[in-house]
Specification:
Acyl-CoA_Oxase/DH_mid-dom, binds ligand UCC, Butyryl-CoA Dehydrogenase, subunit A, domain 2, binds flavin-adenine dinucleotide, 5-stranded mixed beta barrel
């Protein structure tokens, strides 16, 4: 710098202040609730050491690979230079590294090795939770891989999937396979029963050839897939609707000329987010496949996969919230405005504290579902546990999927303009969060799934819900610091009970209109009880109590408020339609 300023050339003067960026620290050590939850339920040294070490690796090494996956998205090479069809999905080296890492770290394997007995799913999902926001969305194929292993295990079929199962659950990178989940076709992703056009043509050796068009197939570089199709009878006829669907297994393999067997990749999707993941449209033109389910039991058989992927979705949603809160609080200790650090502005801290409460509640709801899954898989689940797992799976997926968008969006704002800048990596968190409420069942479709499981259990599912929430509250009786929260949840529970009894006397359309609000009420009330229960634990902190109190200040049971306003009466649908199309 030339103070006299008379040199003919000088560097552009850009000032001397540069803002320090937020720093990612070990996500395990940074997370008081995660560590508290594990100390309470799974205090095994080996588990805590593994998670702490993995957290360190995520912060120091893996997060940068995740960023590479985002900036080097997959691309499709459809033809070779001489015009031959090759359909190569080219992925980044970072994406491949994620696959090896996932195998080595046992991201799927832990769920099947079960080193922590009934708590193994909690262990596995805690690891996933630490991994997710740095994983470059490799968690998407992991979810489907775990889901496929679960389906194979629960169907108890050995041939031809024994080998596949061992590869899906291995820790050896060179043997590790990932799976796809091809359900969605052009006519329907929610309504697969009507929307599936793919036919399965029986072959003389008992196998099938699939012909159809799969409209969304994520992580299409997978080694195998589970998919739905309609088996043809000897006359070539198929059964319409859901009852005509069967579950098929197919290898995604290449012939000696390097061409995909029975598949053409039509194109890769151009997506808002999840750009790290190849999502393709596939023409199935004679894909060799094996039927795994009984004929017509396709949807019921793939339901186990949906349970797993929906739980992964929930854990990913909470992890996205946690990541943005973690970075925001670090930034608040580095950024100054109006003469003091952001962390010293009470209004800014209130904003972050609200995000923290949302994140804590969502964490406990998701982990409780993992707890139930672990109990079911190790044969120690009571009937009540089984009902709760069925109910909570759609509830936690739909609730956390929506909350992730809200918290991450607020989180971006806490970085000011920098939260909007692509090269900070922050906008990608928001883009990737938007999908969480769409894939694996939209909010409305899952709300209807809640109704379905309630109806099909003849009330047992709700009975389990009420019983368990009451048990959780009972543990807090006499804890005066929590009394307002306990009262709020208790009141909400009574209101919910009243609503359910009233709704049972109304026409089916009444509950359909209430489905989303009911699911939210179930989520918020249950989560309130979990926060209270955690705050009652002897190792809890004052912040655990504060979080429970704050959570329970919100409207826990919106379905009752809306019901009182007549929102579900039969005159509302035409009014809603008239308003929308006004
Ligand atoms: O989006 C996708 C992949 C994205 C990438 C992976 C990301 C993973 C997360 C990663 C995070 C980073 S794959 C596509 C996902 N598609 C869906 O989720 C479909 C959404 N639609 C539904 O869920 C619908 O409700 C359907 C398709 C299940 C409705 O089908 P049906 O056939 O009309 O339903 P039915 O007739 O009610 O059910 C048929 C049978 C019944 O069993 P039975 O006959 O024994 O009574 C049901 O009880 O299936 C059973 N069933 C279930 N069982 C249906 N749903 C369930 C369930 N959720 N759990 C247990
Ligand atoms: P639609 O069913 O057309 O839904 C449109 C709207 O209508 C939604 O808001 C929905 O909530 C609402 N709606 C539908 N039915 C009802 C009802 N009965 N009552 C009230 N509201 C209703 N699928 C796969 O099979 N495999 C994949 O790997 C895969 N990857 C994906 C990756 C990405 C990035 C995305 C975005 C999607 C992917 N999907 C995949 C598809 C995804 O599962 C579907 O898009 C999703 O299930 C919704 O189906 P749809 O697109 O047909 O929407």
């Amino acid at each position: 710098w030339d103070p006299s300023g008379d040199l003919p050339f000088s560097r552009a003067r850009v000032g001397t202040f540069f803002q320090e960026s937020p720093m990612l620290k070990n996500p395990f050590l940074e997370d008081a609730l995660l560590r508290g939850y594990l100390r309470r339920h799974l205090p095994e040294e080996a588990v805590l050491t593994d998670l702490c070490g993995f957290g360190e690796r995520v912060a120091k090494e893996v997060d940068a690979w995740g960023r590479q996956c985002e900036v080097n998205p997959p691309r499709l090479v459809q033809f070779d230079p001489w015009g031959r069809r090759v359909d190569h999905i080219v992925t980044s080296s970072a994406w491949k590294r994620m696959k090896d890492l996932s195998a080595q770290e046992g991201m799927v394997a832990i769920g099947y090795e079960r080193p922590a007995g009934e708590w193994s799913r909690v262990y596995q999902m805690s690891k996933l939770y630490i991994f997710c926001p740095s994983a470059g969305l490799f968690t998407c194929p992991l979810a489907m891989t775990d889901g496929a292993a679960k389906v194979i295990q629960s169907l108890g079929v050995s041939w031809p999937v024994e080998e596949a199962y061992s590869r899906l659950t291995t820790r050896q990178p060179e043997r590790f396979w990932t799976s796809g989940q091809w359900m969605t076709e052009r006519q329907g992703g929610s309504d697969v029963g009507t929307g599936t056009e793919t036919v399965a043509v029986p072959q003389s050796d008992g196998s099938y050839r699939l012909h159809g068009f799969k409209w969304f197939t994520s992580a299409t570089d997978a080694d195998m897939t589970l998919t739905l199709a309609r088996a043809q009878d000897p006359t070539g006829a198929t059964t319409p609707g859901s009852r005509g669907l069967s579950l098929f297994y197919a290898n995604v393999s290449r012939d000696e000329d390097g061409r995909l067997r029975g598949i053409e990749v039509q194109r890769l999707k151009d997506k808002l987010g999840t750009r790290q993941v190849p999502t393709a449209e596939l023409l199935l033109d004679g894909l060799p496949a094996h039927r795994l389910s009984e004929e017509g039991r396709g949807v019921a058989s793939i339901a186990n996969m949906l349970t797993i992927t929906r739980i992964y979705n929930s854990v990913s949603a909470v992890a996205a919230m946690r990541r943005v809160v973690q970075l925001a609080r670090d930034y608040a200790a580095r950024r100054t405005a109006f003469g003091k650090l952001l962390k010293d502005h009470p209004l800014h801290m209130q904003t972050l504290a609200r995000m923290e409460v949302e994140t804590r509640g969502a964490f406990l709801l998701a982990m409780d579902t993992c707890r139930l899954l672990g109990r079911e898989e190790t044969g120690v689940a009571s009937e009540l546990d089984a009902h709760l797992l069925r109910l909570l799976t759609p509830v936690v997926k739909l609730y956390t999927g929506k909350q992730a968008m809200a918290v991450v969006s607020e989180g971006l704002e806490s970085f000011g303009g920098q939260g909007y800048m692509e090269d900070t990596g922050l906008p990608g968190i928001l883009r990737d969060a938007q999908v969480l409420s769409i894939w694996e069942g939209t909010t409305n479709v899952l709300s209807l799934d809640v109704l379905r499981c309630v109806a099909r259990s003849s009330g047992m599912v709700l009975h389990a819900y009420f019983t368990h929430v009451k048990t959780l509250l009972a543990g807090a009786s006499g804890v005066s610091a929590l009394a307002p929260a306990v009262k709020a949840v208790d009141d909400a529970l009574s209101e919910l009970h009243g609503f359910v009894q009233l709704a049972a006397t109304r026409a089916p359309g009444y509950l359909e209109l209430a489905a989303r609000d009911l699911a939210y009420s179930l989520a918020r009330t249950y989560t309130g009880a979990l926060l209270i229960d955690h705050a009652c634990w002897k190792g809890s902190s004052p912040s655990d109590t504060y979080a429970a109190l704050r959570w329970c200040e919100q409207e826990l049971c919106p379905v009752v408020t809306k019901q009182a306003r007549g929102c579900y009466e039969s005159n509302t649908p035409p009014l809603d339609s008239a308003l929308v199309y006004d």
